[in-house]
Amino acid sequence: QLLTSSVVMVKPSRSGADIETVTAADLCKKYGIENPMQFKDILALWGDSSDNIPGVPGIGEKTAAKLIAKYGSIEEIYKHIDELSKGQREKLLENREQLDLARILVEIKTDVPVDIDFDKLARAQPNAEELKKLFEELEFRSLSRDIFGDAKTQSKPKPIQTSLFGDDVFAKPITEHSLNTIDDVKHDYRLVDSDKEIDELVRMLSATDEFCFDTETTGLEHHTSKLVGISFSIEPHTAWFVPIPADDHKANEIVNRFKPVFEDENIAKVGQNIKFDLLMLKYYGIELRGKL
Fold first, then answer.
1. Which pLDDT value is given to residue 179?
2. DSSP letters along the chain, please?
3. What is the mean pLDDT of each run of 10 residues along the chain (292 residues)?
4. Which fold does the domain 9-106 belong to in CATH?
5. For position 125, what pLDDT does the model report?
6. 181-190: long-range contacts at Cβ-Cβ below 8 A with a sequence spacing of 24 or more?
7. 195, 222 contact by CB (below 8 A)
8. pLDDT of res. 116
């Protein structure tokens, strides 16, 4: 969808060793279409399992491409629905609403307001020392080994991956460093399980410009899970954990004590997989607001 005369797609092979450059002309030739924007209609008909988009049952990549190549768009297909085989006609008519939704889901939105200083996105060499420290703190051993190499096993630098920009990244040996653990890092982690402590935590969160939080739940699916706890932090190595009881009434009462700070648009929220946290809070009647 994004391919133009000035935009190409750089596609690594499955092995990661080779790179294929796909132009707008390449895409159009492959699918028999006139412009790349028609590909979204092919994808809507075909479906995309990686994004959980079902498409139209019985219509695969080749059939979808043939239909769009012949009629130009989904709208034109329905205008000429009587020209199709009985099976295709029935499937398209039965799944019209699903197809309309799929078309919305597969479209890449290009009209989103983005306020970015593109000069700051220019590729530059990383600060190796700071990066090593960060990897050590977060215990990213494999990533550190992949990027910087392992002084014990590597005698010479070698490429660790093919660069999309033609300048392969080389591994460099590093020396072993001891990793910090909870036993040797000064920290202040507290359990918040009284009304007074909750009030004090809410007060502190209300007074900050941003805070980090995470939900602990009974499962990984938001529509079937319940909260068992919420953790908060406003600075490194300092955090609070609020246990949530199994009783629904008591749980709602405790969670909603934090509703004012969660819904305060002037306080930024930081999290990992925050979309899941947002959906969990919504179940308890809380709309997560502010910069995420």
1. 62
2. ---BTTB-EEEE-TTSS-EEEE-HHHHHHHHT-SSGGGHHHHHHHH-BGGGTB---TT--HHHHHHHHHHHSSHHHHHHTGGGS-HHHHHHHHHTHHHHHHHHHHHPPP--------GGGGS-----HHHHHHHHHHHT-HHHHHHHH--TTT-SS--EEE--TTS--EE-------PPP-TTTS--EEEE--SHHHHHHHHHHHHTSSEEEEEEEESSS-TTT--EEEEEEEEETTEEEEEE--SSHHHHHHHHGGGHHHHT-TTSEEE-SSHHHHHHHHHHTT----S--
3. 90 76 93 94 90 88 95 96 94 93 90 86 86 90 83 48 51 53 84 95 96 93 88 94 93 95 95 91 92 90
4. DNA polymerase; domain 1 (1.10.150)
5. 84
6. 185/237, 186/237, 187/237, 187/238, 187/239, 188/237, 188/238, 188/239, 189/238, 189/239, 189/240, 189/241, 190/239, 190/240, 190/241
7. no
8. 87
CATH topology of domain 188-283: Nucleotidyltransferase; domain 5 (3.30.420)
Residue 253, pLDDT score:
94
Q: Do the domains 9-106 and 188-283 sit in the same CATH topology, yes or no?
A: no
Domain spans in the chain, listed from the N-terminal domain onward: 9-106, 127-184, 188-283
